[in-house]
Amino acid sequence: xxxxxxxxQCHPIxxxxxxxASFAQDQQAVLIPVRPRKRSTALCSxxxxxxPGYDQSRTPRRFEFIGFWGYLVFLxxxxxxxxxxxxxxxxxxxxxxxGKHASTKVHMHFLGHWAxxxxxxxxxxxxxxxxxxxxDAVEYLVTWGLxxxxxxxxxxxxxxxxxRGKGHKYLTLVYQIDLGCTRLLWIGKERTVKTFxxxxxxxxxxxxxxxxxxxxxxxxxxxxVIREKCSQALNILDRFHIVAKVNKALDDIRxxxxxxxxxxxxEPVLSKSRWCLxxxxxxxxxxxxxxxxxxxxxxxxxxxxxxxxEDFQQLWNYxxxxxxxxxxxxxxPPGDALADRADDESRQNFTRSP
Length: 354
Ligand SMILES: [Zn+2]
Prior knowledge:
five-stranded antiparallel sheet; binds zinc ion; five-stranded mixed sheet; single chain
């Protein structure tokens, strides 16, 4: 069996013919000549339409193909030029290549495929090519993927920032987190209002209007943009920040109450019970349990706040298939989301009794 026959089977190129393969001078590579089929018309690279021929280069160009048995494989072709009515005399477009890329499209697919399994450096070493070629291949695949991407309906998105490099440099990442479809949708520089708005500009108002859930942390610019661009969605905040806020609020209430009670002569009770309030009930000593009981009798705000926090933890850990699949909509309206970490320091903490 000859190589052209295999190639016609696995990589046919309409309008072109494979010639007999031969070794390159150094015996390290297999060269497969390609020539245009007789009377076939070339495509103008500007408009991707057939155009009258002009001339053909005498210098063959090599396009790297997928290698085999330790040999590098190249398609060798002398480019034609066309005389296009609109573009003038331009080089033709060949179906196996892309502009000035020295790789064939299949070779870029091949490298890109391996670059998902290995590091780019390893891919380059393993297939005897350069890091730049692997980078080009990945770029080609990503561009292709983005052009052919179907956004479709998106029910849930998650937004978060990651730090890049040294110092406070961030990227904003937006993921689709639907059941059965988890994918990275978008990356933007910085973590500002402007950054996140660019995401909504990319998906457009039609898609944003159908988003039902947005998961985010409590970074104020994100919260603002979610309220503005996705007001119908339920904004789900991450547990870490809520617990941190609850702890902070609990501490503030406790210290405020301690100050107030100091005047009333209750000081020892509360200051010695400080840690009881922050401890898990299971970890309390018998003595501490008694103290806590006393405190409950005072009906202190801090005790009620503490109980509220416990309720919250219980709710979070509550596992129910019914709850897990469908969060009741009125649970947290987006307007109730607490804003900003930076303001925390100076802000008054409001607590209501459970
Ligand atoms: Zn043209």
